[in-house]
Amino acid sequence: MKIALIGYGKMGRAIEEAAMQRNHEIIARFDSKHKLDEEILELADVAIEFSRPELALDHIHACLENKIPVVVGTTGWYEDLKEVEKASKKNKTGVFHATNFSLGVNLFFQMNRKLAKLMNKHLEYAVKIEEIHHTQKLDAPSGTAITLAEHVIKKLDDKETWVNHESQNPEELTIISKRIENVPGTHTVSYTSAVDSIEVTHTAFNRKGFAEGAVLAAEYLVGKTGIHTMDDLLKF
């Protein structure tokens, strides 16, 4: 495949390495110094977008308008997902979005759903989510933490929404965000009672798992239309 990288920071470079290991060609690298050029973009079979939350939506629409399927790893734009879905259908071009492309994290998502379903009958346990990332991560909470929270809220009858601070409101699910130098990503969902606690944690050692997942998503997306996620790729 011919791949255009939109966003060429640490994650973009990791994706480049993973793509080349799978014998794909990187035909363009767009970043803050090299703005998106639609004439070059048109040469790609697929684009992989890992940039900034405030730029992602414009990048997605540029890809769709040029009939280039796009894999989106940037989070913080999901309130416009319906708009993107409409544009995807109009242009008959695929969009693959995920808050996390790691196989391990997506298995973790499945465990989180099952655990929350079990814990719904045990209100003596208070649930909390903690996420830790490197200091360069711009959004908080992480998209992965938000996904975990949304899964928990769907399964726990007493939870209505999540908040990004400590909360004693029983209807609110607490997410605590921490930023520490050189931490690729750690997420913990905990259930704590007066006598014990239950925790499930996913810890990333590096960016390789995320990068490989993004490339697999790009391979999957070529030739498809509409909106796709990791659940489709992994056939959960």
The backbone outline, from C-alpha atoms, is elongated
What's the average pLDDT?
95
The ordered H/E elements are EHEHEHEHEHEHEEEEHEH
Straight-line N-to-C gap: 26 Å
Q: What would you report as the Rg, rounded to the nearest angstrom?
A: 18 Å
The count of DSSP E runs of length 2 or more, i.e. the number of strands, is: 11
**Which runs of at least 5 residues are low in confidence (pLDDT < 50)?**
none
Structural class: alpha/beta
The biggest sheet, with number of strands, parallel, antiparallel or mixed sense and barrel status, is: 6 strands, parallel
Side by side, the strands of the main sheet go 2-1-3-4-5-11
Strand content: 25-35%
- Percent of residues in helices comes to 25-40%
Overview of this structure, please?
It is a single chain. By secondary structure, the protein is α/β, with parallel strands linked by helices. It is built from 8 helices and 11 strands. The strands form 2 sheets. A 6-stranded parallel sheet has the order 2-1-3-4-5-11, with helices on both faces. Strands 7-8-6-9-10 form a 5-stranded mixed sheet. Helix 4 links the parallel strand 4 and strand 5. It is elongated. The model has no long low-confidence stretch (mean pLDDT 95).
